[in-house]
Write a structure and sequence with these properties.
This is CBM6 domain-containing protein. Belongs to the glycosyl hydrolase 43 family. Keywords: Carbohydrate metabolism, Glycosidase, Hydrolase, Polysaccharide degradation, Signal, Xylan degradation. The protein has about 300 residues and is mostly beta strands. It has helices spanning about 1-15, 125; strands spanning about 30-40, 40-45, 65-70, 80-85, 105-110, 110-120, 130-135, 145, 155-165, 170-175, 175-185, 195, 210-215, 215-225, 230-235, 245-250, 265-270, 270-280, 290-295. A four-stranded antiparallel beta sheet has the order 1-2-3-4, with no helix packed on it. Strands 5-6-7-8 form a four-stranded antiparallel beta sheet, with no helix packed on it. The longest helix has 14 residues, at about 1-15. Bound molecules: beta-L-arabinofuranose.
Length: about 300
């Protein structure tokens, strides 16, 4: 079945060069896009989906062994800067865990901090389940040097970092609910207690936090499963750690059944954009996804207008 999926994917990919801008990357699977504006370019740090095969990941499940970073000056032409972090090159990572899930990257004082969740090798020291590591670079495209240990006090997936106007940085992540804490100036250690972000919906999985600020409003955006597939929702607050008020839907559930979605939101050249993913190139297997972007608009009161994906 997966070989058929791959064949279909390759056919779609070869057709795509003459088609529209979405999906953004056409020669490999990409998911969970974390978009950032660094200088005059947009950089996207996605997960890099591959198809698991015997001895290489868990067949029928997500499989990722590394990360690439892509940049663009116009959101149409993308440069692949190549592999920036590989599971076998991070000291604390279980070799060949194929679980390099959704990352994020942020700049502080001329350094670029790349956050990624995956499984540790030493479960006695780090426990079972996902931990979150950091790799540091002098340029957005690397080379990135991984830290020797995952971040202390953090267990979960989908790291997201937000730096407030006063310079305080925050780390967010998910583990069923969404959690947050202050980060130290060094961006490598927590600087506060971990809080469970309130008041998000009680029911259903919430993951993929992405926080941004606009006109004094802190927006916490997150995929939430209420029905069958993930819907992109948001909540607002006047404080980066909440409490938040559930405010609306950014993108409805996938009309074609892709189970996950995962977002980031940036302002580039005075236009807001939503980055997200869909399984365009793998319609029969929703763990092989492709990143997309569409314009995003706000209402006068600061609420977000729903984005309709430009699906094929
Ligand atoms: O890519 C693996 C997982 O799927 C991510 O961590 C979640 O946000 C979902 O997109």
């Amino acid at each position: 079945k997966y070989h058929i999926s791959i064949t279909i994917a390759l056919i779609f990919m070869s057709m795509s060069y003459s088609l529209a801008q979405n999906p953004l990357i056409n020669d490999q699977f990409t998911a969970d896009p974390s978009a950032r504006v660094f200088g005059d370019k947009v950089y996207v740090y996605p997960s890099h989906d591959i198809i698991a095969t015997e001895g290489k990941g868990r067949i029928g499940w997500f499989a990722m062994e590394d990360y690439h970073v892509f940049s663009s000056e116009n959101l149409t032409d993308w440069t692949d800067h190549g592999m920036i972090v590989h599971q076998n090159k991070v000291p604390w990572v279980k070799p060949e865990s194929y679980s390099m899930w959704a990352p994020d990257c942020i700049e502080r004082n001329g350094k670029y901090y790349f956050y990624f969740p995956t499984f540790p090798e030493d479960t006695v020291t780090y426990g079972k389940g996902f931990r979150i590591g950091v790799a540091v670079a002098d340029q957005p495209e690397g080379p990135f040097t991984p830290e020797a240990h995952p971040i202390k006090g953090v267990r979960g997936i989908d790291p997201n970092v937000f730096i407030d106007k006063n310079g305080q940085a925050y780390l967010y992540w998910s583990a069923g609910d969404i959690y947050g804490a202050k980060l130290k100036e060094n961006m490598l250690e927590l600087d506060s207690e971990v809080v469970t972000l309130k008041d998000l919906p009680d029911e259903g999985l919430k993951e993929g936090p992405y926080v941004f600020e606009r006109n004094g409003i802190y927006y916490l955006t997150y995929p939430h499963v209420e029905n069958k597939t993930e819907r992109l929702e948001y909540a607002i607050s006047d404080n980066p750690l909440g409490p938040f008020e559930v405010t609306g839907v950014i993108m409805d559930e996938s009309p074609t059944g892709c189970w996950t979605n995962h977002q980031s939101i940036i302002n580039f050249k005075d236009q807001w954009y939503l980055f997200y993913h869909h399984n365009d190139y793998s319609p029969d297997f929703d763990k092989a996804r492709s990143i997309r972007a569409d314009s995003l608009f706000f209402n006068k009161d600061g609420t977000i207008k729903k984005v309709s994906p430009t699906l094929r």
